[in-house]
Amino acid sequence: MAGKSKEKSEMALPSLDVGMAAFELRGESPLLMNCFHQKSFEQMLAKMTGYDMPRQNKDLSKEYENAFIRNINGTECIPSRWVRSAIESATPRSKKMISATSVRCACFVMGHSLPIRDVDGKILARPKSERKAAVINKDLGTELEPMLSVAAQQQIDIVRVGSWGNKQPDVRVRPVYEEWSIQLVVRFFPDQLNLRQIAWGLDAAGKFVGLCEWRPEKSGTYGTFRVDMLSEKEIPRIIEESKTHMPRLQVPPWLMHAAETAGMSPAQAIDQVQNAHARAIGSKKNGKAETRV
Questions:
Q1: Residues 37, 179: Cα–Cα separation, whole Å
Q2: Which residue has the higher pLDDT, 172 or 220?
Q3: What mean pLDDT is reported for the chain?
Q4: Helix (H/G/I), strand (E/B), else coil: 158
């Protein structure tokens, strides 16, 4: 008697509609940049872990170079997440037209970094020859020589920093773009947000929130923009241009082992970690050799 054939039950998952739209944000006020650099991160972390790092003399040229925001290819850019955060921050002024929850759940700016374009629409990218040099220098453990932007200008401001009631004047040197634009692709779910709401959210972000330093959200006037919609044909190109990652902050080895090197200077801590690493490699090799005998 032939056995009965077993029918495999398959559950069909409902497909969700996904929409994509391309936009250009064109600056209506200057864009002032400031990057939380790796060196600043190390100084902050050293203070938190008990290291007494001596205060170095101010180097304005290096401070200016470190203030640029660049992706791992050296292209001057804005992180994609900043635009989404600006849309979310603008939702309270929407008169219930769009909610912050719908932006968080159903609105996504594609890619990782949005290249900044000059007045002619040209991306401010590091030449390929310098990208190769950057990789070589990274392998050698040295830094690439500062590369000054052709579109940005130096802006020097006197600011007051410190705790409330004890603020001290300080000099800040940062790059500013007088004329700028960025292009981006927004991915959204039409059953939660429609294209009109996305466009309104971007427009409100450009008027009420802004981007980067001294923006309206932080009582400034910089970083405002207007919104233009681009053709669907531009979507693949913009996604390709914005897929490059941003550099990640890294904890140096001498701070990763803060408990073992407490009370040492940074130079002593580095030597301690390197010696411990060398001993670990040596003991590992000896263990393998003894096993073979």
A1: 24
A2: 220
A3: 80
A4: strand
Report CA-CA distances (Å) from 16 to 181, 194, 257, 281. Answer: 32, 14, 48, 53
Query: Residue 161: beta bridge partners?
Result: 168
Bridge-based pairing state of the strands 19-27 and 181-188: antiparallel
| CA nearest to 182, candidates 137, 127, 140, 242 | 242
Q: Tell me: the pLDDT tens digits for 95-143?
A: 778 899 999 999 999 999 999 998 888 887 765 555 444 444 444 444 4
Other beta carbons within 10 angstroms of residue 199's beta carbon come to: 16
Q: Which of 103, 101, 89, 121 is nearest to 223 (CA)?
A: 89
Find the Cα–Cα–Cα–Cα dihedral 32, 33, 36, 40, rounded to 10°: -80
Task: Note the pLDDT tens digit of each residue in 215-237.
Answer: 999 999 999 999 999 999 999 99
Choose among 30, 49, 85: nearest CA to 221: 30
Q: Is the confidence at residue 291, as pLDDT, over 50?
A: no
- Cα distances from 281 to residues 278, 285, 286, 287, 288, in angstroms, run 5, 6, 9, 10, 11
User: What's the CA gap between 121 and 100, in Å, rounded?
Assistant: 32
Q: How many CB atoms lie within 10 A of CB 11?
A: 4
Residue 32 confidence (pLDDT): 95
Residues 6+ apart with CB under 8 A from 22: 183, 184, 185, 186, 229, 230, 231, 232, 234, 235, 238
The model's pTM: 0.77
Residue with tokens 């594609």: 110
Quickly list H helices, 77-121.
80-90, 100-106
Kindly report the CA angle at 269 between 266 and 274, in degrees rounded to 5? 125
Spell out the residues 6+ positions from residue 216 whose beta carbon is closer than 8 angstroms to its own.
Answer: 207, 208, 209, 210, 223, 224
CB 98 within 8 Å of CB 203? no
